[in-house]
Design a protein that fits this description.
Oligomer: single chain
Number of helices: 7
Strand content: 5-15%
Number of domains: 2
Order of helices and strands: HHHHHEHEEH
Structural class: mainly alpha
Radius of gyration: 25 Å
Length: 159
Amino acid sequence: MNPASIVIVLAIVWGAITGTFTGLNLLLGAAIGGVAVLLLRSAFAPPRILRKIGQIASLILLFLYELAASAVRVAIVVLTPSMKADLRPAIIAFPLTVKSDAEITLLANLITLTPGTLSIDVSEDRSVLFVHVLTLSTREALIADIAGGFEAKVREIYS
Protein backbone atom coordinates (compact mmCIF):
# COMPACT_ATOMS: atom_id res chain seq x y z
CA MET A 1 0.00 0.00 0.00
CA ASN A 2 1.24 3.46 -0.77
CA PRO A 3 1.35 6.14 1.95
CA ALA A 4 -1.62 8.10 0.57
CA SER A 5 -3.93 5.09 0.75
CA ILE A 6 -2.68 4.32 4.26
CA VAL A 7 -3.59 7.87 5.34
CA ILE A 8 -7.08 7.48 3.85
CA VAL A 9 -7.60 4.14 5.61
CA LEU A 10 -6.38 5.62 8.90
CA ALA A 11 -8.77 8.57 8.51
CA ILE A 12 -11.70 6.18 7.98
CA VAL A 13 -10.60 4.07 10.97
CA TRP A 14 -10.40 7.29 13.01
CA GLY A 15 -13.94 8.16 11.97
CA ALA A 16 -15.13 4.67 12.92
CA ILE A 17 -13.43 4.83 16.33
CA THR A 18 -14.82 8.27 17.15
CA GLY A 19 -18.24 7.46 15.68
CA THR A 20 -18.50 10.62 13.56
CA PHE A 21 -17.79 10.85 9.88
CA THR A 22 -17.89 14.61 9.50
CA GLY A 23 -15.45 16.24 7.14
CA LEU A 24 -13.57 17.98 9.93
CA ASN A 25 -13.24 14.76 11.97
CA LEU A 26 -12.00 12.82 8.92
CA LEU A 27 -9.54 15.63 8.20
CA LEU A 28 -8.24 15.35 11.78
CA GLY A 29 -7.92 11.58 11.32
CA ALA A 30 -6.04 12.13 8.05
CA ALA A 31 -3.69 14.59 9.77
CA ILE A 32 -2.99 12.09 12.56
CA GLY A 33 -2.52 9.33 9.96
CA GLY A 34 -0.17 11.58 7.96
CA VAL A 35 1.99 12.18 11.04
CA ALA A 36 2.03 8.44 11.73
CA VAL A 37 3.10 7.67 8.16
CA LEU A 38 5.85 10.31 8.34
CA LEU A 39 7.15 8.86 11.60
CA LEU A 40 7.05 5.31 10.23
CA ARG A 41 8.11 6.09 6.63
CA SER A 42 11.11 3.75 6.78
CA ALA A 43 8.73 0.86 7.44
CA PHE A 44 6.85 1.72 4.23
CA ALA A 45 9.99 1.99 2.06
CA PRO A 46 10.35 -0.72 -0.57
CA PRO A 47 12.96 -3.36 0.18
CA ARG A 48 16.48 -2.57 -1.02
CA ILE A 49 16.49 -5.34 -3.63
CA LEU A 50 13.34 -3.98 -5.29
CA ARG A 51 14.84 -0.50 -5.41
CA LYS A 52 18.04 -1.92 -6.95
CA ILE A 53 16.02 -3.83 -9.58
CA GLY A 54 14.19 -0.61 -10.42
CA GLN A 55 17.48 1.26 -10.82
CA ILE A 56 18.86 -1.46 -13.12
CA ALA A 57 15.65 -1.45 -15.16
CA SER A 58 15.91 2.34 -15.43
CA LEU A 59 19.48 2.04 -16.77
CA ILE A 60 18.42 -0.61 -19.29
CA LEU A 61 15.56 1.58 -20.54
CA LEU A 62 17.89 4.58 -20.84
CA PHE A 63 20.40 2.46 -22.76
CA LEU A 64 17.74 1.15 -25.15
CA TYR A 65 16.49 4.69 -25.77
CA GLU A 66 20.02 6.02 -26.37
CA LEU A 67 20.79 3.04 -28.60
CA ALA A 68 17.78 3.72 -30.82
CA ALA A 69 18.29 7.49 -30.92
CA SER A 70 22.00 7.17 -31.69
CA ALA A 71 21.36 4.61 -34.41
CA VAL A 72 18.93 6.99 -36.09
CA ARG A 73 21.39 9.91 -35.82
CA VAL A 74 24.24 7.85 -37.29
CA ALA A 75 22.00 6.54 -40.08
CA ILE A 76 21.01 10.09 -40.99
CA VAL A 77 24.67 11.16 -41.13
CA VAL A 78 25.63 8.15 -43.26
CA LEU A 79 22.71 8.48 -45.67
CA THR A 80 22.99 12.21 -46.33
CA PRO A 81 24.65 13.12 -49.63
CA SER A 82 27.02 15.57 -47.91
CA MET A 83 28.30 13.11 -45.32
CA LYS A 84 31.70 14.81 -45.01
CA ALA A 85 30.03 18.09 -44.11
CA ASP A 86 28.00 16.43 -41.36
CA LEU A 87 30.94 14.56 -39.80
CA ARG A 88 32.61 16.38 -36.93
CA PRO A 89 34.71 13.65 -35.27
CA ALA A 90 36.44 14.51 -32.02
CA ILE A 91 38.06 12.98 -28.99
CA ILE A 92 36.98 14.51 -25.71
CA ALA A 93 38.21 14.04 -22.15
CA PHE A 94 35.19 13.17 -20.03
CA PRO A 95 35.80 13.88 -16.30
CA LEU A 96 34.69 10.85 -14.28
CA THR A 97 32.81 11.01 -11.00
CA VAL A 98 32.54 7.22 -10.79
CA LYS A 99 35.65 5.70 -9.21
CA SER A 100 35.52 1.92 -8.94
CA ASP A 101 36.72 -0.34 -11.74
CA ALA A 102 33.25 -1.86 -12.13
CA GLU A 103 31.58 1.54 -12.48
CA ILE A 104 34.14 2.79 -14.99
CA THR A 105 33.92 -0.43 -17.00
CA LEU A 106 30.12 -0.35 -17.14
CA LEU A 107 30.10 3.32 -18.16
CA ALA A 108 32.76 2.76 -20.83
CA ASN A 109 30.88 -0.23 -22.24
CA LEU A 110 27.58 1.67 -22.35
CA ILE A 111 29.28 4.49 -24.25
CA THR A 112 30.99 2.08 -26.67
CA LEU A 113 27.79 0.13 -27.36
CA THR A 114 25.99 3.33 -28.35
CA PRO A 115 26.43 4.05 -32.08
CA GLY A 116 28.56 7.09 -32.85
CA THR A 117 30.62 6.97 -29.65
CA LEU A 118 33.60 4.91 -28.57
CA SER A 119 35.45 4.75 -25.25
CA ILE A 120 39.15 4.88 -26.02
CA ASP A 121 41.06 4.94 -22.77
CA VAL A 122 40.99 5.83 -19.08
CA SER A 123 43.64 8.02 -17.53
CA GLU A 124 46.05 6.38 -15.10
CA ASP A 125 44.50 8.14 -12.10
CA ARG A 126 41.02 7.02 -13.30
CA SER A 127 39.68 10.57 -13.33
CA VAL A 128 39.19 10.97 -17.10
CA LEU A 129 37.62 8.78 -19.75
CA PHE A 130 38.61 9.56 -23.34
CA VAL A 131 35.67 9.24 -25.73
CA HIS A 132 35.64 9.44 -29.54
CA VAL A 133 32.46 10.86 -31.08
CA LEU A 134 31.38 10.81 -34.70
CA THR A 135 29.56 14.15 -34.68
CA LEU A 136 30.35 16.63 -31.91
CA SER A 137 28.10 19.64 -31.49
CA THR A 138 29.78 21.03 -28.35
CA ARG A 139 32.09 19.44 -25.80
CA GLU A 140 30.00 20.76 -22.89
CA ALA A 141 26.76 19.31 -24.31
CA LEU A 142 28.31 15.87 -24.73
CA ILE A 143 29.78 15.89 -21.23
CA ALA A 144 26.44 17.01 -19.76
CA ASP A 145 24.61 14.31 -21.74
CA ILE A 146 26.88 11.50 -20.52
CA ALA A 147 27.07 12.81 -16.94
CA GLY A 148 23.31 13.30 -16.64
CA GLY A 149 22.48 10.04 -18.36
CA PHE A 150 24.66 6.97 -18.21
CA GLU A 151 27.02 8.14 -15.47
CA ALA A 152 24.20 9.23 -13.15
CA LYS A 153 22.43 5.88 -13.57
CA VAL A 154 25.64 3.89 -13.00
CA ARG A 155 26.39 5.94 -9.89
CA GLU A 156 22.83 5.35 -8.66
CA ILE A 157 23.16 1.57 -9.08
CA TYR A 158 26.49 1.35 -7.26
CA SER A 159 25.55 3.69 -4.39
